[in-house]
Design brief:
The protein is mainly α and about 575 residues long. It has a domain of about 70 residues. It is built from 32 helices and no strands.
């Protein structure tokens, strides 16, 4: 502005455009600070809650009352910090604040959460000494503590004590006790308590109690009873939790028709199936080999927008691989990765095994290479390497199998008995018995105990190399090492002994297997009967044939043809 010039009047803003005058800060009140304290405790921010408590204690208008003490005690109790709770209780008493039943019940719950029942009962007695009467919550906390520690008989005695105190046990108390009875294996006691509860009209069965009953019956192997109970119960008491537990139990028990009936009842009640419901159904159907229905449930789950988890994907992948349908398993695998769910190593291993069992070693190699190259996913583990080593050994690619074993140890993975057995089997198949025995020696040096399959492979290798005495020596070594032989190991010996013309010893080995409680299969009977026929002991072969049929084992076409041919030749 130029000096001396007249000052022009400034235009006034319209009232609507003027900023509002600054508002005075709201003064805190005991109610607002109490709400803030409750929020801090709920969020687990106990240090901030304690600072706020001390601020309130230092300013007389906000002196903590019994509600404030109760909130803080509950916050610490929920995290097992009982010592802090006791300090707060002592401070309340010293400042003239009389603790109420809510505060005491929270403190009792803190003791129960850390498994200290005796101090909890001492505190319960202290309540009475200062005239604080326990309520249903107090008794419920103590019931929960007793049931958790398996002291169900003592917990059962609390029901009369509650009634004597003028309290009527509610659904929470009955549910806690019924759950404790199921957990301790007292199925009859749980069912009887439920009957008494309904017969005496002591308490209405609500959703919590019904869920406890359904879960207990399903886990005790009685899902059909759980379904009957659910059908008879009031619709208002039937919850999605109860249905989920029931459907899971029915599917695991192979009761698919009943699981579908439970599903229909759920939908009829107007409840919406959730992730747990669908996952239980997919898991159960996959386990039963009902993969068409499992896939329908899976894709319905995707269609309604529910998130599919690792377990659900894994169930379908495992089910398809068990049914030798690796292509469908790979489709689900790709869908899983496309949906942003990272497969774990178990799913990779299931698919690897599925590919190997179908003779698709090339595709298994590709997947294994992908697993080895990945930086943001699971790394190949011992199971992955064992699967690939076994596949290569079976395909006659022994050099590749040995290289994988070296790579495995180079990554710090310790070979197992399965690893060594795959390699030994591969060596024996190629007639490299010396290398097989060297691997067997390395097993001992690595303190890896051989199993019956390791011994069977070595025995079979020596039989094929016409070294029957070494095969028998390995059999004796197996017995002295406390490794129980199976029918495969005996079949190897029996076949070798027959080929060496030692028919009497072969028959003795078969009887020894029977004496050990082993059950011969069609392969073992076939080896025995062919050997007897070759040795000219046709009558014994016929007797063994009759014995096999009496044992409920039907000879296959090849066995019947070969034995008939021998019998015709011998007249």
């Amino acid at each position: 502005m130029v000096a001396g010039s007249p000052e022009l009047p400034r235009p006034r803003r319209p009232a609507a455009l003027r900023p509002p005058p600054p508002r005075a800060a709201a003064s805190p009140t005991l109610l607002s600070l109490t709400k803030l304290l409750r929020s801090l405790c709920s969020d687990g921010r106990l240090s901030n809650a304690l600072r706020l408590f001390h601020f309130m204690a230092a300013h007389s208008p906000f002196s903590p009352d019994v509600v404030v003490y109760g909130i803080l005690v509950d916050g610490f109790a929920k995290r097992g910090r009982v010592v802090d709770c006791l300090a707060l209780l002592a401070r309340a008493l010293s400042t003239g604040v009389r603790p109420d039943v809510v505060l005491f019940s929270s403190l009792l719950d803190g003791y129960v959460s850390i498994g200290r029942l005796e101090p909890a009962f001492d505190l319960r007695r202290a309540m009475s000494s200062i005239g604080v009467k326990p309520n249903a919550v107090t008794f419920g906390v103590l019931l929960k503590g007793l049931c958790r520690l398996g002291r169900v008989a003592e917990a059962h005695g609390f029901l009369p004590a509650m009634i004597k105190s003028g309290l009527r046990p509610g659904a929470h108390a009955y549910g806690t006790l019924i759950d404790g009875l199921f957990a301790s294996g007292q199925l009859r006691g749980a069912v009887d308590l439920h009957r008494r509860m309904t017969r005496d009209d002591a308490c209405a069965v609500d959703a919590v109690v019904l869920s406890v009953l359904v879960k207990g019956l399903a886990r005790a192997g009685r899902p059909h009873d759980a379904l009957r109970l659910l059908v008879k119960s009031a619709a208002a008491a039937r919850s999605i939790v109860a249905f989920n537990v029931l459907i899971d139990g029915l599917c695991k028990a192979g009761m698919l028709t009943e699981a579908v009936a439970a599903w229909q009842l759920l939908v009829g009640d107007g409840l919406t199936p959730d992730v747990v419901t669908f996952t239980a159904l997919v898991n159960g159907l996959s386990e039963l080999g009902r993969l068409r229905e499992a896939a329908m449930a899976f894709f319905l789950m995707v269609k309604v927008g529910l998130p599919v988890d690792l377990v659900c994907y894994g169930s379908l992948v495992n089910g398809y691989c068990k049914r030798k349908d690796v292509d469908s398993a790979l489709r689900i695998f790709r869908l899983m990765r496309g949906g942003g769910v990272l497969p774990d190593i178990c799913i990779f291993n299931v698919i690897l095994l599925g590919l190997i069992e179908q003779g698709l070693l090339g595709r298994a190699r590709e997947l294994f290479s992908e697993l080895a190259a990945a930086t943001d996913g699971p790394a190949a583990d011992v199971v992955s390497y064992n699967t690939m080593i076994g596949g290569c050994a079976t395909a006659g690619l022994l050099s590749e199998a040995l290289e994988l074993a070296e790579e495995m140890t180079g990554k710090g993975l310790r070979p197992t008995a399965i690893t060594f057995t795959h390699l030994i089997r591969g060596c024996c198949r190629e007639g490299r018995i010396g290398e097989a025995m060297e691997l067997f020696k390395r097993m001992a040096e690595a303190r890896t105990a051989p199993n019956v399959y390791t011994y069977s492979c070595l025995m079979d290798g020596h039989v094929k190399a016409r070294d029957m005495d070494k095969a028998l020596e390995l059999h004796e070594d197996m017995l002295s090492s406390k490794v129980d032989p199976n029918m495969i190991s005996y079949s190897v010996l029996i076949d070798g002994l027959f080929k060496e013309g030692r028919a009497a010893e072969a028959v003795m080995a078969f009887e020894c297997a029977m004496h050990r409680g082993l059950v011969p299969d069609v392969v073992a009977y076939g080896i025995l009967m062919r050997g007897l026929c070759r040795a000219g002991r046709v009558c014994e072969a016929r007797m063994m044939h009759d014995r096999m049929v009496q044992d409920g084992i039907q000879p296959d076409a090849m066995l019947s043809s070969s034995v008939a041919g021998f019998l015709n030749t011998m007249g």
